[in-house]
Amino acid sequence: MTPSRRGALSLTGAALTAGLAGCVTSSSGSGSETASGDGSGSDGSGGGSTADGGETYEVGHGDFQTTVSASAFPEKLFVYAVQTGWSNWGALMTEFEKTYGVPLNDDQRSSGEALSDLRANSQDPTHSAYNGGYTFGILAMNDGLTQAYKPADWDKVPEKLKTDNGHMTATRRMTTTVTYRKDIYEEEGIEPPETWEDLKREEIASKTQYQPPNAAVGLAGALSINNAYGGSLDDVQPVIDYYNEVKEKGAVFAGNVEQKFTKGEVHTFVEYDYTGLDLKYNADSIAEDKVATTLLTGPNGEKGAFNQPYGYGMLKGAPNPEACKLFMDYVLSLEGQRKFLDAFVRPIRAPELEMPEQFPPQSAYEETEFQVDYGKLVDEQESIISEIGKGVGLTGY
Length: 397
Prior knowledge:
D-Maltodextrin-Binding Protein, domain 2, alpha+beta
């Protein structure tokens, strides 16, 4: 996350007062120095102790509780799609390395790219865990590419957003929104969008960017539009028709929109609430008052904001399982969950944390947000992505 020019968010309340509870014991010198913490795993890793010249940590939940040793940690930990510039992973990566001495590889991939790569390397895994869109992870599990591990605080995750076998666990959720350049809209006399139909107007469509559906964020956007026009998981023709109409008016389908947005080359984009809010309140590259984020309905009030879960799972036969388990525990701890919230990513443990006041009002989410049958989506996801891509004439489908 880019350091905010406006200072830290005003997150208050008892749930936010605790620091890292991980208890780290130094093995250097004649004595040992232990950081304070209850070792419960609710706000960091379990307590550490010294063994064979290195710290050890208690990790895992229930039957998966075990001890890992720093002596087994790698020089660098590889986890798919843990990357700077997305979901505030940069802050989590920095804090994890600072606390445990393990840097993470900056893995700049989408969920779809991660799934393709781990499938290609299934016989000789290069990464320790999959991270990304939850349903993409379920596909990896169904392919037999994951293994069981329930991180500490696994019991705090809603039942519908984790698998009983411990192969996939949700860590955060994001909702499809539209972000636009408020200043450009005002200068050009463009009325801000209220429904997805408004994004068809040529003055908006000609400078709008959508993510392709093979990325989790792009699939979420496609499902949002599809639902807004009466589609379903069994019928994606509405979004195909929509995309073809805006494409003819100049809309583009690509990733990495932020730089083009700040330069004004694109004045509207479809991603998540996190993307727009983090850009508005945390980025130094553009003034806060130039950015606006909104949730849209369909033309007749249909819900048009898909709520997308993201999560992770260990990979079968993956290298460095000890460090991976510690990292997975950290991500699900309150300390790690706060890092998501700092960038307006709603953590899976949000009920235990106070939400920043900069989020759109809850009433806006209630009017627009929807979910789907995630089991059905898993079964049909790849055919849905392919059908949309081919129907719109996007490359690579």
